[in-house]
UniProtKB/TrEMBL annotation:
NCBIfam families: fpg, PRK01103.1. It comes from Bacillus mesophilus. Belongs to the FPG family. Residues 235-269 form the FPG-type domain. Its cofactor is Zn(2+). Its EC number is 3.2.2.23. GO terms for biological process: base-excision repair. This is DNA-formamidopyrimidine glycosylase.
Length: 269
């Protein structure tokens, strides 16, 4: 599932490609991917200019000229491609936006969605999301405040969107590795030094992943050479049985509350 770095990478690239462009036509192949009748979606979106593209956690938010918003959550298996009928990927597209000289394909929205919302509805959807970890307002003091008296395991809290927005399965493991703590540790067992290390690692890992284009495998458009660059730079995620680049010990995989979890046997304590 795309996490903060993947969605922020998409946001930045799409801003360069489709911001201030007009949606000239729409094709909806799966009505369950949207939240209103197809006729209403067409009426309120076709002919609208994309004023801005924002991100909140794992969501993208397309702000339309008429004041409505399109809220995108790709969920598991979702992706996008900006191109043409000639270079489009051979995958099922649930929604297609036409921008006259290019098309934006929303792919794999079997679990994901593209919802048409008012500003008030967006605020309602976002009201329980935790803070943005890359926002300057997310400080060490803020981090310690939201931890409060947590007693659960690190990974399970890090993937909780009400705790911190945007972190999922991949980067929770990467953060724990960088901080040299086991993802199975409990919050109330951590020292002050370990809490500070975790905070530093959240910022470092997410920024590093963003600089490398995240882990999405498919480029966003034909000449996109950034998206997916993180795949070759994972510390532990999806590296079961491989050697840790820091200490030389083996990387293991376990299940933690039905989530796959990767860590190093040697240098995470």
């Amino acid at each position: 599932m795309p996490e903060l770095p993947e969605m922020e990478n998409y946001r930045r690239l799409l801003c360069k490609q489709i911001k201030d462009k007009t949606i000239t036509d729409i094709k909806i192949n799966r009505d369950k991917s949207i939240n209103v009748p197809i006729s209403e979606f067409h009426e309120k979106v076709t002919g609208q200019t994309i004023v801005s593209i924002d991100r909140r956690g794992k969501h993208l938010l397309f702000h339309l000229q008429n004041g409505f918003y399109l809220l995108l959550h790709l969920m598991l298996g979702g992706t996008m491609y900006l191109g043409s009928q000639q270079d489009q990927p051979r995958r099922t597209k649930q929604v297609i936006f036409d921008f006259h000289n290019s098309e934006l394909f929303f792919i794999g929205l079997r679990l994901g969605y593209l919802h048409l919302l008012t500003k008030e509805q967006v605020e309602e959807d976002f009201k329980e999301l935790g803070p943005e970890p890359l926002d300057p307002s997310f400080t060490l003091e803020t981090f310690k405040e939201i931890i409060g008296k947590k007693k659960g395991k690190l990974k399970l809290a890090l993937v909780d969107q009400k705790f911190i927005a945007g972190i999922g399965n991949c980067y929770s493991d990467e953060i724990c590795y960088h901080a040299q703590v086991l993802p199975t540790r409990k919050w109330n067992e951590l020292s002050e030094e370990e809490l500070e290390a975790l905070f530093t690692s959240i910022k470092f890992v997410l920024n590093r992943a963003l600089e490398l284009g995240g882990y999405m495998e498919m480029p966003l458009y034909k000449l996109d050479q950034l998206t997916g660059g993180y795949n070759d730079h994972c510390f532990v995620y999806d590296r079961e049985g491989e050697v840790c680049n820091r200490c030389g010990q083996s990387i293991v995989k376990i299940e933690l509350s039905s989530r796959k979890c990767f860590y190093c046997l040697g240098c995470q304590r």
